[in-house]
Amino acid sequence: MNKFSVVIAGGGSTYTPGIVTMLLDNLDQFPIRKLKLYDNDEERQRVIGEALEIVLRENAPEIEYAFTTDPDEAFTDVDFCFAHIRTGKYKMRELDEKIPLKHGVVGQETCGPGGIAYGMRSIGDMIELIDIMEKYSPDCWMLNYSNPAAIVAEACRVLRPKAKVLNICDMPVGTLRRMSQIIGKQPKDLDVRYFGLNHFGWWTSIKDKEGHEYLPEIRDYVAKHGYLTQVEVDTQHMDQSWQETHKKAKDLLAVDPRFLPNTYLKYYFYPDYVVEHSDIHYTRANEVIDGREKEVFSAAERIVEKGTAKNESFSAGSHATFIVDLARAIAYNTHERMVMIVENNGAIANFDDDAMVEVPCIVGTDGPEPLSQGKIPEFERALMYQQVTVEKLVVKAYVEGSYQKLWQALTLSKTVPSAKVAKALLDDLIEANKEYWPELH
Ligand SMILES: NC(=O)c1ccc[n+]([C@@H]2O[C@H](COP(=O)([O-])OP(=O)(O)OC[C@H]3O[C@@H](n4cnc5c(N)ncnc54)[C@H](O)[C@@H]3O)[C@@H](O)[C@H]2O)c1
Ligand SMILES: O=P(O)(O)OC[C@H]1O[C@H](O[C@H]2[C@H](O)[C@@H](O)[C@@H](O)O[C@@H]2CO)[C@H](O)[C@@H](O)[C@@H]1O
Ligand SMILES: [Mn+2]
């Protein structure tokens, strides 16, 4: 069996140890000959890199391994790049969340002004990463889950339309896992129909392989409890803020009970509630810095100190398993059905062809083939049109260096109450992001 060479970009990410653990657990499904970690932060890369060196030595010494900040070393001779970079790291995520709150607006990693600011930071780095990949390994596929995925995907469509980049999000997988618990099934037993944008969508059908429809049963549960199942799916989702988000899905469902909502709609349907329940002094970024980041980095440091990983384990979560499924689909033409972010081109019949939408696709050696989701109702369509236009304006603002277009993007966001607030916010965001954004005029 062919063995693959993989580089993880954002090798110092909190997700890297979980992903490597999951790759090692699945070597029979996806054999690896070479594994490299690449990050532009030497210190973060060193801690995670040294710990994983010990993990590999103890579990899979046959895999050639390296960690580096050198793009040439990282990207030479690779078949797959798993990309999860965070331009500006948690320091900037914290500002993305806190600056909007100062203006009474939702402060969130990927939604509203925070997502727009993060998008403006990520586009340049993502395009650079694609160019590096194509320079050193022209046949390599990039499986990208760097956020904000909607804006990054639109930037790839506009700036690198031919690149072998697959944009994905694990929220549909994570929520399907919760749904499967509700009905006592496994995610692999179920096929979904879904339409929307990234972090902005709805399930219209959840069927088993015999064709039985479970949506009504799941809806009855979600109407009472949201997606709260109390079974530990992903460790960080036991955090208070995620528990509240899963619970809040019941109020999202109430707005249109025909479909099962993505939890991220909370920031668009109930921004007032979100702001009221936010603490400007302690946002999700702080929770992650004090939680996941500390846990992962302390575990890595303990491994290095002891010289063994025998008593440590990293949790993989649904985020990680999704990636092996996708890599296998490309490598072995498995025709796996997966929800992905792709150019619409008719998949949603009454939506723009050039919109980056999130729909189920059949994935094989040539990439994803979107499945037709038919026509969508006016309410969802109008919401999606507003949001996709925000995302397109951000990319245009980046490309043209346009202050005006970014102001329009913020004004159009459903999370922002007026052009006045949008302008004040924009000026604060420009100041905070001057190290990262192109100059706007
Ligand atoms: N699509 C999804 O569903 C999904 C799910 C989870 C996380 N994510 C995303 O994955 C990314 C990582 O998340 P995290 O919480 O582990 O963040 P993190 O800050 O722990 O890790 C990101 C790493 O990327 C590195 N980095 C930044 N710019 C880089 C560049 N240009 N080249 C190489 N490395 C670079 C940073 O130094 C850091 O070590 C984020 O973008 C996050 O939003 C996406
Ligand atoms: O606040 P964070 O950093 O914990 O999470 C933000 C990310 O949340 C989603 O990803 C989840 C995923 O849904 C879940 O199944 C599991 O794997 O954990 C992930 C991280 O919590 C979302 O899809 C990402 O885009 C966000 O970055
Ligand atoms: Mn996501």
TrEMBL record:
Details of cofactor binding: Binds 1 NAD(+) per subunit.
Keywords: Glycosidase, Hydrolase, Manganese, Metal-binding, NAD
Domain of life: Bacteria
Cofactor: NAD(+)
Lipoprotein listed as a keyword: no
Domain Glycosyl hydrolase family 4 C-terminal per the UniProt entry, residue ranges: 194-416
Membership in a protein family: Belongs to the glycosyl hydrolase 4 family.
Protein's UniProt name: 6-phospho-alpha-glucosidase
Organism listed in the record: Heyndrickxia faecalis
